[in-house]
Amino acid sequence: FNELKQFKEAIHYQNKAIALKKTLKGDHKRSIDNSINNLGHTYKDSGQYDLAIKAFSEVLKNKNLINERPYIYVLALDNYAHTLYLSNDYSQLPKLYHKALKICDSINASYKSIIIHQHLA
Fold this sequence. Notes:
Blueprint: H1 7-23, H2 29-45, H3 49-60, H4 65-68, H5 70-86, H6 95-107, H7 110-120
């Protein structure tokens, strides 16, 4: 739905997926973080920047994420930074992009590095 620009439906199903994942037994934090990041991406694409920032912040608030799942951390950090840029909030830029690039270098995430360089440009 997001790719079809049907954002209301995309948000509905992302929220439904997150709610379902939270009811499952076991540790599904990784999958939940991915879904919250995807929800933030949908909010960003639909121009709902405040909600996107809130979603990305929720993923980034996990202080262990950078060590446990650095790729997810850098993905959320770049999305957060890009959403700040789109909302005309430059107060933390380009610092956040540089931080994300440094992490990409340390984990050999060259494809993500390309996207961050595009956002930085």
